[in-house]
Design goal:
This protein is mainly alpha-helical and about 350 residues long. The protein contains 17 helices and no strands. It is globular and about 50 Å long. It binds magnesium ion (MG). The site of magnesium ion (MG) has 6 residues, from helix 3 and helix 15.
Length: about 350
Amino acid sequence: MIAFMISPVPGPAAGSLFGLAYGDALGKPTEFLSVAEIERRYGPAGPRELVGDPALVTDDTQMALAVGWALRETPRYTAEAVEPLLRQRFLDWAASPDNNRAPGMTCLRACAELSRGRPWQQATVAGSKGCGANMRVTPVGLLDVDLDTLAGLAQLQAGLTHGHPTGLAASELTAYAVRLLIDGAALAELPGLLTERAHEQRTVYRADWLGDLWQRSGEPTPEEFITRGWDECLRALRRLAAALAGPDDGGDPCRLTGEGWIAEEALATALLCAVRHADDPVGALARGAATAGDSDSIAALAGAFVGAVHGMPGWPAEWATRIEYADQLTALATAWER
Ligand SMILES: [Mg+2]
């Protein structure tokens, strides 16, 4: 029960955090529905109204809050300082009675191993690049840190559960996308800017953040390990660029950039929704929610992107008090608004 509510500040950090939760809530009922069934229930434009009071979110928002609070509590942005806080927040989430929102198997498996006190490089699911690591990473993009620190934090929070190099690279790109938008980039510029970043980072293994994680992969060197992840992201970004080169036919974006169950597709398909509806934030959420794929994660990331551009004025005002965890979203946004 929330005793009182402070109004969220109107800036881009609030817009992005609330946008993530709004997209997650709109996509929650559609995650496991076909597009035909979604259109039958909501019409061709998809769901555009929050349902319930509170309007419930899923594990996407819950885990983004876990990352957010770990970042808020850390005395320093280093692997040594942040890792135990992330671990504790993830374990608290895993054990919470509210962890009943169709959570991802990779996160549950990794948390079970983390709870035994094992080093995270051993606890993580080394072969998983499910979208569970980048659906929760957007708070990293709100921090006022240099890009190496942003990259390290984004990859570390991914690595605790998803040890696959593509999970690491896609998480960095997702956080970097939010950062670019906060700094004033236009949504339409993102595919090009993210592609540039992926080329620059292609052989950069962040040992100071990841330690010996690469050794679980079977790759001969750390550079070859991480390059595999960046190259998969580059392929997804090429599909995104090809999709955006043509006109919008109004259909399911998953046909063009993938269903988003895996990390690089969640990023690409969410960006496709955001770019297509750059001036209609709720439309971006509805487009993400009306998909055959991982609707809540796609809509959540689309919301984090368009929300970073428009801030709270982009969202219906009355949603801010109805969304689940509004108090926590407000507290983090207030701390990080620049
Ligand atoms: Mg979810």
